[in-house]
Amino acid sequence: MREVTIKIGLERLDTQERITVEALLDSRATGLVMSSEFARKKGFKLKKLERPMQVRNVDGSFNREGLIENTVEVNVYYKGHVERTEIDVIGKQKWGVILGMLWLARHNPEIDWKTGEVKITRCPEECGKQWRPVQGKSGWEKQKKEEAKEEAEKKKEEKEKRKKQKKGRIVEVRKIAEEWEIWDEEEEAAKSEVEAR
């Protein structure tokens, strides 16, 4: 059976350092999982869980690696989508990162099981479009500049829109004021006409 993997970007929140990693898509895994060895090697800051979680295997037996005692909080990037999430850290495993059912159900990717191609076309709106698959520090810096530029343009457009709305309201108020003046003039004319009779 074919294993489907994708290259994702992981950003450490404490240092904003970003790395690219091959992650396994696994519908048998409930959540998102990171190998403790991988977390240690890459210098991820561990966050201790208040209550450790027991891990069960697909067959219902307890996992020999023991309890999940830590998580790491990261930004996960994949083909234009980004999300901040916590990944459970568990003992040794073949894969550095596994994206399980929580991730698969949330993003609902299109998977071509013959080629292994994974497309994110049904992702929720809140994921945003913030990541492009560019590797290397200069690529990430370029991406950050592009994102800042896009954000500035978005703010400028919103400001213009508010300005037009405000201008539209001013024009509408002027029309109402003119109608009142006309009404006042017509009322005065009618009073004058009645008094003249």
Structural summary, described in words:
By secondary structure, the chain is an alpha+beta fold. It folds into two domains: 4-133, Cathepsin D, subunit A, domain 1, CATH 2.40.70.10; 137-197. The chain has helices at residues 36-42, 101-107, 137-196, and strands spanning 4-12, 18-25, 32-35, 47-53, 68-78, 81-90, 97-99, 110-111, 118-119. The strands form two sheets. It has a six-stranded mixed beta barrel. Strands 8-9 form a two-stranded antiparallel sheet. A hairpin with a 5-residue loop joins β1 and β2 (18-25).
Describe, in short, the structure shown.
By secondary structure, this protein is α+β, with helices and mostly antiparallel strands. The protein has two domains: 130 residues, Acid Proteases (Cathepsin D, subunit A, domain 1, Beta Barrel); 61 residues.
Tell me the strand percentage band: 25-35%
Q: What integer value in Å does the Rg equal?
A: 29 Å
DSSP strand count: 9
Structural class estimated from helices and strands: alpha+beta
Could you say which overall geometry the principal axes of the C-alpha atoms support?
A: elongated
Query: What summary fits the major beta sheet?
Result: 6 strands, mixed, barrel
Give the helix tally: 3
Q: Kindly identify the CATH topology of the largest domain.
A: Cathepsin D, subunit A, domain 1
Oligomeric state of shown chains:
single chain
Low-confidence stretches: 129-140
Which range best describes the helical content: under 10%, 10-25%, 25-40%, 40-55%, 55-70% or over 70%? 25-40%
**Through-space gap between termini:** 102 Å
